[in-house]
Amino acid sequence: MLDSLVTSKTRVKLLLKFFAHNNSGYLRSLAKEFEESTNSVRVELNRLAEAGLLLAEDEGKTKVYRANHMHPFFTEIKNMVSKFLGLDDLMERIVRRMGEVERAYIVGDYAMGIDSGIVEMVVIGKNLDTQYLEFIKSKTFEKVNRKVQVTILDTDPQDIVGIMIYGN
């Protein structure tokens, strides 16, 4: 969906990076992460910054980019990226149908803003419907072409590194 609206693959990667999570990045690290030339990444960073979607701040000799939360379309772009990744629908289904979910986290690559094709989740709760989980994992793969790996825990170990997407 997103890649049919935005024709530049580098721009899609940048939008995923900055609007899926509160990430920041600089030219060389982004080029290395995306396995793209620094020139192609620079061109897209400049276009997104000129449009006001990204903010560029100097940190020493390095220019660091991050999403502009004050942009009038920030929320819409963030929602579009979320739908593209399929995480909003996945989480809504899991929380609604799994049982007594206390908390849910996105961990791994997606928590760092990297679209690796594998969504890793940790779901914490009791008496969860694991058969439904297997069903929803296969449906998610069919719908958004991303593998879903879910770890189920009875209690929160309090040291999970990731983004809490359900719970308090």
Task: Please explain how this structure is put together.
The protein is α+β, with helices and mostly antiparallel strands and 168 residues long. The chain has two domains: 2-78, Arc Repressor Mutant, subunit A (Orthogonal Bundle), CATH 1.10.10; 86-166, Beta Polymerase, domain 2 (2-Layer Sandwich), CATH 3.30.460.10. The chain has helices spanning 2-5, 9-20, 27-34, 38-50, 74-85, 87-97, 130-144; strands at residues 24-26, 54-59, 62-67, 100-107, 118-126, 147-153, 163-166. The strands form two sheets. A four-stranded mixed sheet has the order 6-5-4-7, with helices on one face. A three-stranded antiparallel sheet has the order 1-3-2. α7 links the parallel β5 and β6 (147-153). α6 (87-97) runs antiparallel to α7. The protein is elongated. Residues 1-5 have low confidence and may be disordered.
Structural class: alpha+beta
Taking the alpha carbons of the first and last residues, their distance comes to: 32 Å
What is the CATH homologous superfamily assignment of the largest domain? Beta Polymerase, domain 2
CATH class of the largest domain: Alpha Beta
Q: Report the oligomer.
A: single chain
Strand content: 25-35%
Q: Give the strand order of the largest sheet, numbering strands 1, 2, ... along the chain.
A: 6-5-4-7
Number of strands: 7
Helix count, per DSSP? 7
- What is Rg? 17 Å
Main pleated sheet:
4 strands, mixed
User: What do the pLDDT scores average to?
Assistant: 82
The CATH level-2 architecture of the largest domain is identified as: 2-Layer Sandwich
Would you identify the regions where 5 or more consecutive residues have pLDDT less than 50?
Answer: 1-5
- The shape, in one word, is elongated
Percentage of residues in helical conformation = 40-55%
Instruction: Look up the CATH topology of the largest domain.
Output: Beta Polymerase, domain 2
Order of helices and strands: HHEHHEEHHEEHEE
Number of structural units classed as domains = 2
